[in-house]
Amino acid sequence: MAEMIKLYDDAKCTACRGCQLACKQWNEKKAKQTTNYGSYQNPPTLQSNTYMIIHFQDVKDTKGNVKWIFRKESCMHCADAACVTACPTGALYHTEFGTVGLNPDRCIGCKNCVAACPFEVPKYEQETDRVYKCDMCESRLRNNLTPACVKACPTGALKWGEKDAMIKVAADRVKELGGDANTYGDQYVSGTHFMYVLQEKQPVYAALAQNPKVPLAVVAWKNLLNPLSLLAAGGIVVGSFLHYLIHGPKLPDETGETTKKAEGGE
To answer: How many whole angstroms separate alpha carbon 74 and alpha carbon 26?
Structure first.
């Protein structure tokens, strides 16, 4: 199956937050009480019950005029996903679409993924002792439907399609916008399945990770420590089997002490 990605064009976004509402509705997540902190952005960050948000930000243009810019934030669905590597139970996994799925029933609340994610996406919920994040509407994808946020977007700021085609769309859009327009996402962490077309330089956007990388500890675990642990576990299994072949099974004798059948113990 061809890899799929979601593309967000901030120049087409009107911050209507239809995508944000559609995400909550599809995932059956209730809103939580928030506090006004002087911004139209609500909630202020991703939460365990809010898998995506629209950032509101005002900036000055080259003429000194103030203008709004917006940015959709959600899971980047990395090709080399640190959260998947760090998860000890398989609750986080790669799907056939290239996205990163989540099975909450297998989550043990260890929060390894929270520490590992270079984009600070997974959020822990104390009430359920589990972690939650966007799964790119995997249930919809499996039924040949687009993600709920893409379906709800009225301006075409969100698109869903095959990765190669969407990368070309993004490149063409950057040329069309000109100026400081650029793409963000696929050039990091071995590629992502959520990409941006940004009309401003990347550092202009608040809370946008600059040069995100998989943490060194996760790299070491994936490339060195985990293979060694598997090798050690395999050695224990092989050693136990050889011991069984050479000495035979241990059986309890009449006094309750163990005796080696192969050695003829009483």
So the answer is: 15
- Please report the pLDDT score of residue 155 as a whole number: 97
Q: How far apart are alpha carbons 82 and 114 in whole angstroms?
A: 10
What pTM was computed for the model? 0.81
Domains of the chain in sequence order: 4-214 (3.30.70.20), 217-263 (no CATH)
pLDDT of residue 260: 47
Backbone dihedral region of 175: left (phi > 0), alpha (psi from -120 to 50 degrees) or beta? Answer: alpha
In angstroms, the first-to-last Cα distance of the chain is 63
Using only the alpha carbons of the chain, give its radius of gyration.
25
Distance CA 246, CA 24 (A): 61
Write phi, then psi, for 140 (nearest 5 degrees): -70, -45
Q: Is 92 exposed, middle or buried (0-12, 13-18, 19+ CB in 10 A)?
A: buried
